[in-house]
Design brief:
alpha/beta, 8 helices, binds thymidine-5'-phosphate
């Protein structure tokens, strides 16, 4: 059977991923696919427990602990959800994946990229998404959107300078992997962002 495709969505907090996730699901369903929709950290019972710890604003932790827990959740997620679905020919859409570790733990927290690459290789071998949509917004726009949605979690409480480093790291990765990572300017009106997403997804179909 033809393996399914693996699509990941990325962006700083408040970049509008959730809205576009729903739109991508609709586009794939229209094309006759039944995508598996999942997220990181999370997507499995253990991963959701780890997510709760990672997002708990009262849970202070070392930056390397944070990175290791992200990759532990990812290992479980790959084993239980992503790889079985891809092997069955299903399409998988994950709200965040390893680019988030390079952006948040690498860029935001300043962790050594070499260490993250070791974890990446350990946990996922050569597996990479077929397509990553990176929703790019200026930090002020992201921060304004988060403050309107819900109570801030441990990451959302970070300063603007943290998100600036996260955004720069995402943009660096998009330059490093131009074939895989598509930058979508998410500060435009919603209809324009949806059109850009549709064009990108059509290329994959
Ligand atoms: P979400 O709110 O977009 O679902 O993401 C949860 C938070 O986890 C978000 O602030 C980004 C952060 N995160 C990391 O710091 N590293 C990672 O590897 C992943 C997957 C998420």
């Amino acid at each position: 059977m033809k393996p399914g495709k693996f699509i990941t969505l990325e962006g700083i907090d408040g970049a509008g991923k959730s809205t576009q996730l729903a739109w991508i699901v609709e586009l794939l369903r229209r094309a006759g696919l039944q995508p598996v929709v999942t997220r990181e950290p999370g997507g499995t019972a253990l991963g959701e427990h780890l997510r709760a710890l990672l997002l708990d604003k009262s849970m202070a932790m070392h930056a390397e602990t944070e990175a290791l827990l992200m990759f532990a959740a990812r290992r479980e997620h790959l084993d239980k959800v992503v790889l079985p679905a891809l092997h069955q020919g299903q399409w998988v859409i994950s709200d965040r994946f390893t680019d988030a570790s390079f952006a948040y733990q690498g860029g935001g927290r300043g962790l050594d990229t070499d260490k993250l690459e070791i974890l990446e290789h350990w946990v996922q071998g050569a597996l990479q998404p077929d397509l990553t949509l990176y929703f790019d917004v200026p930090v002020e726009v992201g921060q304004q959107r988060i403050s309107q949605i819900k109570e801030a979690d441990r990451f959302e409480l970070e300063q603007a300078s943290f998100f600036q480093r996260v955004r720069n790291a995402y943009l660096d990765r998009a330059r490093q992997f131009p074939g895989r990572i598509q930058i979508i300017d998410s500060s435009r009106p919603l209809a324009e962002v949806k059109t850009a997403v549709e064009q990108t997804i059509q290329q994959l179909l």
